[in-house]
Description:
Blueprint: H1 3-14, H2 18-24, H3 27-37, E1 43-47, E2 51-56, E3 59-64, E4 72-73, H4 82-95, H5 107-122, H6 126-147, E5 154-157, E6 162-166, E7 171-175, E8 184-185, H7 192-206, H8 237-262, H9 269-284, H10 288-305, H11 313-336, H12 341-344, E9 352-353, E10 357-368, E11 373-382, E12 387-396, H13 404-407, H14 420-423, E13 426-431, E14 434-435, E15 440-441, E16 448-453, H15 467-477, E17 491-494, E18 498-499, E19 503-505, E20 510-516, E21 522-528, H16 534-545, E22 553-559, E23 566-573, E24 581-583, H17 594-599, H18 622-637, H19 644-660, H20 664-670, H21 676-692
Parallel strand pairs: 12-15
Antiparallel strand pairs: 1-2, 2-3, 3-4, 5-6, 6-7, 7-8, 9-14, 10-11, 10-13, 11-12, 13-16, 17-22, 18-20, 19-20, 20-21, 22-23, 23-24
Helix pairs in contact: 1-4, 3-4, 6-7, 8-9, 8-11, 8-21, 9-10, 10-11, 11-21, 18-21, 19-20, 20-21
Amino acid sequence: xxxxxxxxxxxxxxxxxxxxxxxxxxxxxxxxxxxxxxxxxxxxxxxxxxxxxxxxxxxxxxxxxxxxxxxxxxxxxxxxxxxxxxxxxxxxxxxxxxxxxxxxxxxxxxxxxxxxxxxxxxxxxxxxxxxxxxxxxxxxxxxxxxxxxxxxxxxxxxxxxxxxxxxxxxxxxxxxxxxxxxxxxxxxxxxxxxxxxxxxxxxxxxxxxxxxxxxxxxxxxxxxxxxxxxxxxxxxxxxxxxxxxxxxxxxxxxxxxxxxxxxxxxxxxxxxxxxxxxxxxxxxxxxxxxxxxxxxxxxxxxxxxxxxxxxxxxxxxxxxxxxxxxxxxxxxxxxxxxxxxxxxxxxxxxxxxxxxxxxxxxxxxxxxxxxxxxxxxxxxxxxxxxxxxxxxxxxxxxxxxxxxxxxxxxxxxxxxxxxxxxxxxxxxxxxxxxxxxxxxxxxxxxxxxxxxxxxxxxxxxxxxxxxxxxxxxxxxxxxxxxxxxxxxxxxxxxxxxxxxxxxxxxxxxxxxxxxxxxxxxxxxxxxxxxxxxxxxxxxxxxxxxxxxxxxxxxxxxxxxxxxxxxxxxxxxxxxxxxxxxxxxxxxxxxxxxxxxxxxxxxxxxxxxxxxxxxxxxxxxxxxxxxxxxxxxxxxxxxxxxxxxxxxxxxxxxxxxxxxxxxxxxxxxxxxxxxxxxxxxxxxxxxxxxxxxxxxxxxxxx
Length: 701
């Protein structure tokens, strides 16, 4: 074996630490290897040009140019065994004297190691990446990187070696040098080669290097068959799909224009059927998000035809505008050859194996959906990632024997967890967890749970004490109408300066609970009465009377309400030394409260306090509101040809006002002649402008 190959092996092994060895195998095998090394060490038994052999007891361990991670052993065990680990540790100890001058890696040393390893990743040829994952795998990896929101979805760190964290799905890979196959995942992953190539491409893009697109697909072999004109296959499958998508977008655009020409108050069953048919076409064209929106529009048209209480022409107009905006984004993305996943959508949520998760259980809530499902959702906080995770167990309401409230104290959903109740206020360690891109955990019974005391919970959470900061963060997370929905980003931990008196409004059937920050801004926590929230309502009424101690935190979910968000409370984190979590839906309720008196028709509830002027900072300009009203009113009546001249005069007046108010994007859209497409574009820009101003939470997503 040449000295160069041996030196490269030793250099890589110098960068292995305990975490890297555990990622390569597991803690149990590492302990056994270390125990075996107390009796004897592995010795070099043979050296050749392309391999290095070590002898450890009765077994022979072979290394080659692919690096330590690809070593093999003569024992019958599959994969990395304790003998391979022992040989690697022995080689590492051989390399230690050469690094004796470096007692401990300094911060600068860690930075140099990252720089050297990053340069090594950038030096891997594209041909090696394509060869490692195959043409299809490289194409998948390239599209995977295009869908990432860099730098948020990628973490680069490490001290002695480079640690690459992919956030969606959650996968950590370690790189100590060598080729692309030397990247070691922290957890077993199917089709590892694709993720190894994706990690390299993501690092390249994050570091500003060029990421080469995949080569064009070769024409299918069957295209050369002579099947006759009537049965001829398309010359290029990709082109056929692209052509189908072009025709689909044109058809959807046409039905949108027909709706506006006719007027949203005059739609017919035929219009509903057209949307439903286009939704099926969109699903077949792999436009999953468009298919979902079209199905929703078809359902909304059905509600209008039935004169249902939930029907709303204004809401339908907003949904049509969102479809119009999505069509434009898809057309632009397809023209570039890389439509992001958040625009195309996914046919179903995919759960991927994650490394061990360290979470804190922060409570649970029982719920019922409008579609007739009931369930229990457990909420968790990750101190490491500073984000919320959830796990839901749901059933159809017609399925008897499932009670979400009783589910809180029933066994599962994971092995080692006696009931969801046991996770509340505890540190939860999940092994072999399955998690999707949005942070939802699978209830798979292959996941094992270890519970530990959480200690002072307030030190692990990330509370927000300023409501203006809260609104700014929320607006930043929801800036684009076409951004991929992230429901778990709506969950927050608040630190109110003081709690107001909760009042139950029997007319709205809603409990309103003022939360005041240090600047005397008021955010309302609201709970709509239901059999599932009854206990929480009673508990909140009792808690406000008990004078909550300073430092009490409130965990809940923000939802839109008249432009200013309100909080749906989940649990309290009490101040003091214990910081015990109080799950509001599952605590003992007081014997009597305003809600119970109303329910029994024995008393009169006080009206909930009115929302304060907190939303004024996020209020839309008057000219924008006037334009929205004008667009909606005409969309209901239709864009008749005989009214175009009058509409053009009004359009020019609105354009001038928007331009004077600094709403240049709207002024530009209003500069075009009146037509259905321009009407939808103007409403879309209105919705997007309101979103950027901090309003528009009620816009369709």
